Every structure is written in structure tokens, then in C-alpha cells.
Amino acid sequence: MFPKIIKLILAVASLGYAGYQFYENYIGNGIFLSLLSAVFVLLYFKNEIIFLAFLRLRKQDFNGTEKWLSKIKNPSRSLVQKQQGYFYYLQGIIQSQNNLTIAEKYFKKAIQLGLSMNHDLAMAKMSLAGILMQKRRKREATLLLSEAKKLDKHNMLTEQMRMMQQQMKKI
Question: What is the total count of domains within the chain?
């Protein structure tokens, strides 16, 4: 994983060299280098390690996800704010299998930093509500569940929310 500043320097350098290639009438080289600089800019905003961790999580490989996330040593310095949110979101999902107290801390941090997709934010709030419900903190869980309902515009989490509300009635 390259630091953020290196990605920007490589993007600017390849774009500058692309301009030189256009000036020298090497149009193909210029187009290729322009696309290469776009890849560096994309990697600045979408971290490659987090992307690979999401692919592991999609296969339900929690150990592999944790292994990829462990490659990020200092998330506050090496990641943009939204990427930090996704880092803590993934950590919360992994820790929710083992330790709910640590998972609660990670989900709160992810919600505080923000996630770029509304359904991811809804999922984080719903997971945090589930953890709070297991800890018998019904009022906070109800508040988070209602916020998650507002964020779930495509009704992807409706069934899970309905099940959680039924469980809350039993508490």
C-alpha cells in the first residue's frame, strides 16, 4: 500500500508526462498515461487494501478480511476519512463474531467518521442496535434502528429490522 502523498505525486507525474507525450504527437502513449493517472487518483479515494478486505468479507472469510486489514498500520494517517469509516466498519463486523464490546466501539467510530453509502451506514447502525439490544440498552437500540430505517431507502434491510423489532418487544 502506497502512502496518500505518493499516489498523488504519481498521478501528477504521469499526467504531466502524458501532456508531454501529447505534445510530441505520441497520442497512444498520452492516452495510456492519462488513464494511468486516473487509476492513481482512484486509488487515492478508494483504498486497495479495503477493497480486497471487502472481497474477502463477501466470501465470509473473516480471517482473510482481518489479515488484509492488519496490513493497514495507522488508519488515521494513511486513509481518507471515509476510508477510515469503512476500516472501522469492517473491524466492527469482524469483532461482532467474538467480542461485542470492541465491535460496539468500532461501529460507533465508523458512524462518527461516516460511510459514503447510505445502506452501509444503515447496516452499521442496525448492527450497533443489535449489539445494544443484547446489552439490554433498549432505548438507544430503538433510536439507532429508527435512524437505520430512514437510511434504508431501497428496503434491503427491512426483514432484518422487523426481526429486531420483534425481539425488542420481548425484552
Answer: 2
Query: Could you tell me the sign of the dihedral formed by the alpha carbons of 25, 11, 2, 87, in that order?
Result: negative
Asked whether residue 31 falls in the same domain as residue 67, the answer is no
Q: Are residues 80 and 120 in the same domain?
A: yes
Read off the pLDDT of residues 129-171 as tens digits, 9 standing for 90 and up: 889 888 888 888 888 888 888 887 887 877 888 888 888 777 7
Measured CA to CA, the distance from residue 91 to residue 72 in angstroms comes to: 12
Contacts 24+ apart (CB under 8 A), 63-67: 65/90, 65/93, 65/94, 66/94
Nearest Cα to Cα of residue 134 among 149, 144, 121 = 144
Same domain, residue pair 22 and 94: no
What is the pTM assigned to this prediction? 0.80
CB 92 within 8 A of CB 106: yes
CATH code, 115? 1.25.40.10
SS3 per-residue string spanning 7-64: HHHHHHHHHHHHHHHHHCCCHHHHHHHHHHHHHHHHHHHCCHHHHHHHHHHHCCCHHH
What domain range includes position 137? Answer: 47-170
